[in-house]
Amino acid sequence: MARWIAGLDGCRGAWAGVLLDLDDPGRHRAGLFASVAELLDGPEAPESAGIDVPIGLPDRVIGGGRAADRAARACLGPSGRASVFPVPPRAAVYADGYEEAKALSRAASEPPFAPSIQCWNILAYVREVDRLLRARPELRARLHEVHPEIAFRRLNGDRPLRARKKGPTRAEGLAERRALLVAAGLPETLATSPPPRGVGADDHHDAMAALVVARDIRLGRAVPLPDPPERDAHGLPVVIWAPAARPC
Known about the structure:
By secondary structure, the chain is an alpha/beta fold. It has a domain at 1-77 and 156-243. It contains 9 helices and 9 strands. It has a 5-stranded mixed beta sheet. The protein has a two-stranded parallel sheet with strand order 5-6. 46% of the residues are buried.
C-alpha cells in the first residue's frame, strides 16, 4: 500500500507542491496547486505534508513572538534569522487591509510592532491554512509547519549554506540545495527535476525541503522547535519541524 508524503511552498498566489511514495520512491510528481486542500484531498491523500507557512497564531505577541519562531532564529544564527518573520497577532492576520493590520498588530503586541508589507503580502497563505485547520481538525495530524532554510541548514550538517537561492549566486545556491536533497535521500529524478510550469525554481526546491521534513515526521525522526510544541487558543500546534540532522 502506498504511503504518500508531500511538501508545499507558497508560489504566486497558489502552492508549489511535490509528492512522493515512501514505499516506491520512483513514484513522485510535482505541480502547482490552487489550494492546500486540493493537494491533501487529491488522489495521493498524503499522510504527512510539510508546508512553509505559520500554523498556530498568537492572540497577543510578546517579546520575540512565538516560541517556535524564537527557536527557529536560534537554530539559523545571525546569518539566517532574518528569514523568520515575526507572526502578527491573529486579529492583524485577518485585517481587511494593510493599514488596519498595522494598527491591530501594534495594539496587540509588546513591544508594539507592525508587519512589513512583505509579511502582509503573504498573510493570505496564513489565513488559508488557519481556516482549513480550524474547519477540519482531522488535518492537523497531516499538515505540519516547516521552514526551508532550517531544513537545508540541518541537511548541511547544521552549517550555513555557501550561496543564496536568489541574486548573483542563484545558480550556485540552487545547485547546492539540489545536492543536499539528493544526499538526504530524495530520488535524483525528483531533486534535479525542472519546476512545473508556473513554479519558480526556488519555490520548487523549498517544497522539496518541506517534503524531506514530512518524510522525517512520518518516520518519527524529525525535530520539533520548540520541544515540546505549544498550541494556540484554537488548539492548533505552534511548532516548526526540522529534519533529522545529517553528519558533516
